[in-house]
Write a structure and sequence with these properties.
This protein is mainly α. The protein is built from six helices and no strands. Among the domains are: 16-45; 46-160, no CATH class. Residues 169-187 have a biased composition (Low complexity).
Length: 212
């Protein structure tokens, strides 16, 4: 009597392996997206008021232009500054990334009138302030020289470029074992001078040693 033939399980096993592989790939992709998303949120959605304050601390020659009055209260809004509106125009109106130098240069080009036209009806502060600050802001940006504009871009990028995974290289001591190019010279031992021995005096009976 022949033994029963084993059931064919190749197809179910293959399907199971494909499902597990797909889940592993999908899970890795989701983890990577979450990590990149968190980093993007940190860099993209820093409060413009906070960033503007940081810039004014480093570039104190830039005017704040926060004398405009609120439509509802009729009082000045101290945090509604030139740089606050500049940043809001960049990230909220034209929706450009905040981490890259080129995008900030494009926004500066808008203010200089050589790139995209700034729409008066969409400018930050138009709906909340009694006077639209667009024309005055454009004139101030245009009055900056080239060096000042470059400094502004550099500071903006340094603030928004938040990357917690950047490796930090610890400083090494010049005499550290991990630095093979530099070794500590060892002192050469100084030879100790030796004093020659004087011949010992003969003793009684030493002449007998010469007798054959």
């Amino acid at each position: 009597m022949l033994p029963p033939k084993p059931r064919k399980r190749k197809l179910p096993q293959l399907i199971l392996a494909m499902v597990i592989g797909f889940l592993l790939v999908l899970g890795g992709g989701l983890i990577k997206q979450v990590a990149l998303g968190q980093q993007t949120v940190v860099s993209q959605y820093l409060r413009p008021e906070f960033v503007a304050d940081q810039i004014y601390t480093k570039l104190n020659y830039l005017p704040k232009e926060n004398q405009y009055l609120n439509k509802e209260t009729g009082k000045p809004v101290p945090e509604n500054t030139l740089l606050n509106r500049f940043i809001r125009y960049h990230q909220d109106i034209v929706k450009r990334p905040t981490r890259f130098r080129l995008d900030w240069q494009l926004t500066l080009a808008d203010y200089l009138g050589v790139n995209q036209e700034i729409k008066e009806e969409r400018y930050p502060g138009r709906s909340t302030l009694t006077v639209n600050p667009m024309e005055a802001d454009i004139k101030i940006i245009q009055s900056l020289n080239r060096r000042q504009r470059e400094e502004l871009v550099e500071v903006l990028v340094s603030i928004y470029d938040v990357d917690p995974e950047k490796p930090s290289t610890p400083e090494q001591s010049p005499n550290s074992p991990s630095n093979p190019t530099q070794t500590t010279p060892q002192a050469t031992p100084t030879p100790t001078p030796t004093t020659p021995k004087k011949p010992s005096l003969s003793k009684p009976g030493d002449a007998n040693l010469l007798v054959p």
